[in-house]
# Entry
Amino acid sequence: MSNVTISTLKKGDSPSTSMKYYDMTRTKDHKFFLRLQVAHYAREHGVRAAARTFECSRNTVRTWLRRYEQGGRSALKEQSRAPHSCPHKTSPHHERKVIEARKHMPCAGPKRLKDLFGLKPSQGAIARILRQKGLTKKRRKKRERKHDLRAIKARYKPFERLQADTKPLFDIPAYWPQMTDQRLPRYQYTTRDVKSGALFLDYADELSATYATMAAERLLEHFARQGLELEHTILSTDNGAEYGGQERRTRQRGFPAAIRRNGVQHRFLPPATPNAHADVESSHASIELEFFDLEHFQSRDEFFNKARIYQYWWNFARINYSKGGKTPAQILEEEGVDPCILLINPLDLGQMLKHLDISKVTNPRVGQDVPALPELLI
# Structure
């Protein structure tokens, strides 16, 4: 490497832009250092000589020389090339609307925020605003990518496949203080239709086969009263004790027997197949974020009123983007099923059991594995 620097060249010297190794490595910004050398050389030898030496246009030399003379060394730093104005940029007013919507419903993404709150910016603009304001959450990546069963599920008929599961509520941090203070339900009994994504909720203070059977039979009898054919319906559950999954022989009573009496097939999930119940499990994740983390309850009655509103919102207004951007009611209507079948309120199973006339039941025993019941449940 030549030891002759640009600043030491004199008139008559051969043009060369070689620089000392020390000069090249002492600065992180080589563009700035090169511009500084151009300005120094132009001041000493002239604009034309600098243009020939550095093999650039005279206008380029004049630009850096003028900036150097007007602003010194700091004027040679890289300047932003962004336009001074952007007519289509999201206004501060709409940015505030996006931020307010996100804070009101932190579980919703850009697409759902736009649909729910009628936001004017595009989905991409909303995502950018959330990212810039630090309002996004990193999602955990799945180690194994599961097969997408949406195409298979779309071929089902309405209520041909039902999934039932229970959700403990006492492990939800936002809900637990309210649950203990107001004596709110501790368990949620959930049933979901795979085809439409329709959701049906019931609640109780205990986990038992009695309550699981009451919830399932009440829903199946409601379907029958609405004229729904149940002969091809399959209701699947996990192997929990409330569903009779620990029994080693087929019995004439209990949850599976009660389901069969209503003309519906009952299936247990095979062991170690949690993804087989993805529909009802995903609804549990959503309801925790959209309902239990956001709502506040002052009494047990208020809890059931808000649970009823949430269930109706889910079935009639909440868009399901994994099912073609439609609501469960819209899917049922397209399939020729009256959406009024979704009009059934969440039930307090404990209160229902208290008001049940046990004297009219053939087998009045009520307990963990023996349900009291069914045809009397409305």
Observations:
- The two ends are 94 Å apart (CA to CA).
- Residues 209-225 form the longest helix (17 residues).
- Residues 184 and 301 are 9 Å apart (CA to CA).
- The chain has three domains: 6-76, 92-130, 153-376.
